[in-house]
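cron nightly-structures :: item 1 of 1
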Amino acid sequence: MELKVDHKSPIPLHRQVEGLLRSLIEIPEFKNGAFLPQEVELAKRLGVSRNTVRQAANKLHNEGLIVRKKGVGTKVASNSITTNLGEWHSFTQEMNSKGIPFKNLKLNVEWVLVDEVVANFLNVDISTKILKLSRLKGSDKPLVYFESYFQPRIGLTGNEDFQRPLYEILEEDYHSVPAVSKEKIKAGKAGKFAKILEIDANEPILIRERFVSDPGDRPLEYNIGYYRNDRFTYSIEIRR
């Protein structure tokens, strides 16, 4: 791969370098563990400042695509999936948009009683049984375990084909459009979810709660996901 930038282009240099780095990390040599060129070396070859290279590399690092070790070098992050704050739609659709094939490794549907947090959000009595959908998703290994609870108003029966993208079912079959997602994100230990995620009980995981409503701000779904920390990165981009 030829490493060069166009110094006469209106595209900022750091954006051009970012594009080069994104192409580099797709090369089998680097995917298999080889170190990426050092910042100083890359800056000299491209005729740009080291800060320009660092700015571009920081973008990939913040997205979880590369990992740095001081005094050692920079490598492609192994088995890491990145999602963005703005991408709150169906997980299957989110992964498909990135060209990542994911599937349901396990799926279970049942009617259950819920705790106060879920009942309050769905605006139901705590004695009301709610449809619960549990899904373990991944490819070669588990990545995330989801639990979804649905507002009875939607009309789900539990007999739906949940191999389809969830929000496609809500929208196309039940005319319930997910329009607003409020999220809470925190770290925790795998604990009782360790076995299903195939990790140690003391390993850290990302816990992501979603409170999904329709355009009228009426509750549709309470969703909680337990993500393997070693295979998932959550990125946030803020602009002024």
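cron nightly-structures :: done
The beta strands are 66-69, 73-76, 81-84, 103-112, 130-138, 142-150, 180-189, 204-213, 219-228, 232-235.
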